[in-house]
TrEMBL record:
Taxonomic superkingdom: Eukaryota
Subcellular location: Cell membrane
Chief site of localization: membrane
Keywords: Glycoprotein, GPI-anchor, Lipoprotein, Membrane, Signal, Transmembrane, Transmembrane helix
Keyword Glycoprotein: yes
Domain named COBRA C-terminal: residues: 232-425
Keyword Lipoprotein: yes
GO biological process, one term: cellulose microfibril organization
InterPro entries named among the record's database cross-references: COB_C (IPR056900), COBRA_pln (IPR006918)
Stretch forming the signal peptide: 1-36
Protein name: COBRA-like protein
Organism: Prunus yedoensis var. nudiflora
Length: 456
């Protein structure tokens, strides 16, 4: 009997171990990474602040302000869309500076009909040119918000909302929940609303402070994995010391597959290009890219151009392959160890990013207003370029093993696909000029000796 008991016990142990392993594997596959943390902008987020500025007989009036605290990620046209779910049976009586996309069922109201009766309203910004009596400060930009570094004055968006059928005191108000932010598509995850210290406001004469009745904040963070299934940009490389041009990786953002997916890309000389650009999908900003091996809407090319005694020079070119997009707020973030010795940059704006103290290897570049701040759609004019001049630091500078090329590049806040490191244009093991400089005096001496022996 004893061996059978031991055998049964061993079988049960093996079964339980297998069950534990199975549960572990299932748990690993059930959680997906969203990469909401950005190493180059660790504190970047969009904060939504609700300030209750007054009470009404059946609710309150609040000013909702969105702050884009992201250093280089912005919200481009067609702008942000904000949503939430009411905690009880609240309604929106009126709005200033924004509007809901649907009114909902307001049939229970007679006479004065609310602006929106939906349990889960969706709010959008008003367009530029809205009458002044429908505006408040920082509204009516079509939902466009600049990044915090590019233009902090336009990194804020606000609207006013009058809420009814709600609490009328700090203790009876119920905070909205299930906040969603689209900018303009998915990508942002919002936390729960948290009551914070009431906001203080300074009057126009700067002699008196007023205070909100109640304030709560909602924080939203960005994940590129949630925003799109495939990358949106890629990087190619070249240098003066090597004839090799490293192209963007093949199928970096997708593969040409017109057989099963007609219209996935368009050739530049296609006679039906105009109709394809204005065809289905334009309203949703679906990209229509030029047919390439990488199929990316945007390509960034980094070229190590010249080498001087104390400096070296780089040319950066950004090319738009998307026939349906004009990038009006474009920016580039580049990580390279020599940015601590950047001497001059031409035709781009520049800002050093220091995500960590004592580390100055990341820079943000963007266009000069009214000159090259618009990256037009694919075509002959669909590119912008600049040159950067770096001072050499003799303790770290080298052209060997791909050091001259960036470690990471972001375009409009999205990480671009880099070529594999083993494909980088490396410095040749020996230079022809160095060989000539050594042989030349040797040959001269040899010829001189022959001349002396001949006439001795």
């Amino acid at each position: 009997m004893e061996p059978r008991c031991l055998s049964a016990t061993g079988s049960i142990f093996k079964l339980s171990s297998f069950a534990i392993l199975l549960v572990f594997l299932l748990s690993c596959f059930s959680f997906t990474s969203t990469e909401a943390y950005d190493a180059l902008d660790p504190t970047g987020n969009i904060t939504i602040k609700w300030d209750v500025i007054s009470w009404t007989p059946d609710g309150y009036v609040a000013v909702v302000t969105m702050f884009n605290f992201q250093q280089y990620r912005h919200i481009q046209t067609p702008g942000w869309t904000l949503g939430w779910t009411w905690a009880k049976k609240e309604v929106i009586w009126s709005m200033v500076g924004a509007q809901t996309t649907e009114q909902g069922d307001c049939s229970r109201y007679k006479g004065n009909v609310p602006h929106c009766c939906k349990k889960d309203p969706t709010v959008v910004d008003l367009l530029p040119g809205t009458p002044y009596n429908q505006q408040i400060a920082n509204c009516c930009k079509g939902g466009v918000m600049n990044s915090w570094i590019q233009d902090p004055a336009n990194a804020i968006s606000s609207f006013q909302v009058s809420v009814g059928a709600a609490g009328t005191t700090n203790k009876t108000v119920r905070l909205p929940k299930n906040f969603t932010l689209k900018a303009p598509g998915p990508g942002y995850s919002c936390g729960i609303a948290k009551i914070v210290k009431p906001t203080r406001f300074l009057t126009a004469d700067k002699r008196r402070w007023t205070q909100a009745m109640m304030t709560w904040n909602v924080t939203c963070t960005y994940s590129q994995f949630l925003a799109q299934k495939t990358p949106t940009c890629c990087v190619s490389l070249s240098s003066f010391y090597n004839e090799t041009i490293v192209s963007c990786p093949t199928c970096a953002c997708g593969c040409q597959n017109n057989a099963t997916d007609p219209g996935s890309c368009v050739e530049p000389n296609n006679p039906y290009l105009a109709s394809a650009v204005s065809g289905p999908g334009k309203s949703t900003n679906a990209p229509l890219v030029q047919c390439t091996s990488h199929m990316c809407p945007v390509r960034v090319h980094w070229h190590a151009k010249l080498n001087y005694k104390e400096y070296w020079r780089v040319k950066v070119t950004i090319t738009n392959f998307n026939y349906r997009m004009n990038y009006t707020l474009w920016n580039l973030v580049v990580q390279h160890p020599n940015f601590d010795n950047l001497t001059k940059i031409f035709s781009f704006n520049y800002k050093s990013l220091t995500p960590y103290a004592g580390l100055n290897d990341t820079a943000m570049l963007w266009g000069v207003k009214f000159y090259n701040d618009l990256l037009t759609q694919a075509g002959p004019l669909g590119n912008v370029q600049s040159e950067l001049l770096f001072r050499k630091d003799t303790s770290t500078f080298t052209f060997e093993k791909g050091w001259a090329f960036p470690r990471r590049i972001y375009f409009n806040g999205d990480n671009c696909v880099m070529p594999p490191p083993d494909a980088y244009p490396w410095l040749p093991n020996s230079s022809p000029k160095q060989v000539i400089s050594i042989l030349h005096p040797t040959i001269t001496i040899f010829v001189s000796l022959l001349f002396l022996l001949a006439y001795a």
